[in-house]
Specification:
Pfam families: OEP. Belongs to the outer membrane factor (OMF) (TC 1.B.17) family. GO terms for molecular function: efflux transmembrane transporter activity. This is TolC family protein. With 438 residues, the chain is an alpha+beta fold. It has one domain: Up-down Bundle (Outer membrane efflux proteins (OEP)), CATH 1.20.1600.10. 68% of the residues lie in helices and 10% in strands. A 4-stranded antiparallel beta sheet has the order 2-3-6-7, with no helix packed on it. Strand 6 and strand 7 form a beta hairpin. The N and C termini lie far apart (91 Å). The relative contact order is 0.11.
């Protein structure tokens, strides 16, 4: 009976553990399902956060910066004291055959660096660390800009895919109308064939856009080293920030990340010159020791001083090389500043042109094409227009709709270029509403 009771107790305990495990499993499954559902769509902020957290190029920089900081620690170290032991007048011949008449010297020496070597080493190492951080900032901007470019590529292809679906639906409806008119004898079979061919081409384009969209999603997910486990990306392509003025661009040139990085490189070159000059100055070594005279048992102190006699600067070549690098860095700094300013002004002008084109297409060309299609479709059904005129009107509208999508994508790419160069989000500028002229 006691054995049976023990078995029952163990069974109840096992059931309780099983219930606990089952609840954990169900909870995990629920979280998994929730994460899968959340992955049906992502937004730009999520894409950028994942890139920052998982992009391998960015993950390498903390290790590189840690290594540079370690070199700064190494540069701060001073020369360590040196302990030396000398034995003289021993293991020779005659009275010096043994250690009875030997002299034993125990000396402690210390090298004293002159020319601010330690300070210049430390400044040089710290400047390399700071430049590496600037380089990380540039890489971060480049990689985030690339993620944004790929994101807007997906967004544009999504819009084009929706456009292609609408086109296929409209052309199928048009084909149905033409087939009814052909059965009634109002039009010939050639009209049916022409519309069917146009529909087949549109379906092929829709398939191509679907394939391009899948590739674009894969390229986007590769920025954070995962598969494209999302269906769509969120966002609109018809709302833009306002374009910065030329005065704003001129004011921002000196604070551009690329300019600041070049200034950091110039600072490294400057400190390299100082370090080379310091290394060209000789150091002094002081020593103090005690001498043991074995023959008499007496002891005495001894002092030493040494310093290289450099009649010419032993680091002259390195100083000249460092100075040449500094001169080159100064020259490149001004060139880079002017190039970045020119790029910003060109991008601004390109943006202005694209915004003007987009406004013209939305406000004038699109309504005109829609009106033309309505009139042509009604006229075709009444026999006033041919199927060729109807198809041409459809093509005009479809071409303008797709051109608007592509122009909006180009506008966003130009804004991304501004963000990449300036290191500032254009969304911080006052947002322009849809259709607002820049």
């Amino acid at each position: 009976m006691e054995k049976i009771m023990n078995i029952l107790k163990r069974t109840r305990s096992a059931l309780r553990r099983s219930s606990h495990v089952l609840s954990i499993a169900l909870g995990t499954f629920y979280l998994f399902i929730s994460s899968v559902q959340a992955e049906q769509s992502i937004n730009l902020e999520q894409a950028l956060q994942r890139t920052l957290a998982q992009n391998p190029q960015l993950q390498a920089y903390p290790l590189m910066i840690r290594g540079a900081e370690a070199m700064g620690t190494q540069a701060s170290l001073s020369p360590i004291p040196k302990l030396s032991i000398e034995v003289e007048n021993a293991l020779g011949s005659g009275e010096f055959k043994s250690f009875d008449n030997a002299q034993i010297n125990l000396t402690l020496s210390q090298t004293v660096e002159l020319g601010e070597k330690r300070q210049n080493r430390l400044r040089f190492a710290n400047s390399e660390t700071q430049q590496l951080k600037r380089e990380y900032e540039l890489s971060r901007l480049d990689i985030l800009a690339e993620t944004s470019r790929r994101y807007y590529q997906v967004l544009a292809l999504q819009a084009q895919q929706s456009w292609a679906k609408r086109r296929v639906v409209k052309e199928r409806n048009a084909l149905g109308i033409i087939e009814k008119r052909a059965k009634a004898g109002a039009v010939g079979q050639a009209d049916v064939s022409k519309m069917a061919l146009r529909l087949t081409r549109s379906e092929a384009l829709q398939e191509k856009l679907t394939a391009d969209l899948n590739i674009a999603k894969t390229r986007l997910a590769s920025m954070w080293m995962t598969n494209s486990n999302f269906d769509t990306v969120d966002g609109q392509l018809d709302t833009f920030p306002s374009i910065p003025t030329e005065a704003m661009i001129n004011d921002s040139v000196n604070n551009l990340p690329g300019v600041l990085n070049q200034i950091a490189l110039q600072r490294i070159a400057d400190y390299r010159v100082d370090l080379a000059k310091s290394n060209g100055q000789s150091d002094m070594t002081f020593g103090v020791g005690i001498r043991q005279h074995q023959s008499s048992g007496d002891q005495s102190l001894n002092f030493s001083f040494s310093m290289p006699l450099a009649f010419k600067n032993p680091n002259k070549g390195r100083i000249q090389a460092a100075q040449a690098k500094l001169d080159l860095s100064i020259q490149q700094s001004e060139w880079i500043r002017q190039q970045l300013r020119l790029t910003l002004l060109e991008t601004r002008q390109h943006l202005t042109n694209l915004m003007s084109q987009a406004n013209r297409m939305r406000q004038k060309m699109l309504p005109q094409a829609q009106k033309l299609l309505r009139e042509t479709e009604n006229g075709y059904q009444k026999g006033r227009y041919s199927v060729l005129q109807w198809v041409d009107a459809q093509s005009e509208l479809f071409s303008i709709e797709r051109a608007i999508i592509q122009t909006h994508q180009q506008i966003y790419l130009q804004f991304l270029e501004l963000e990449r160069i300036t290191g500032q989000s254009m969304s911080n500028v006052v947002t322009a509403s849809k259709g607002e002229k820049s």
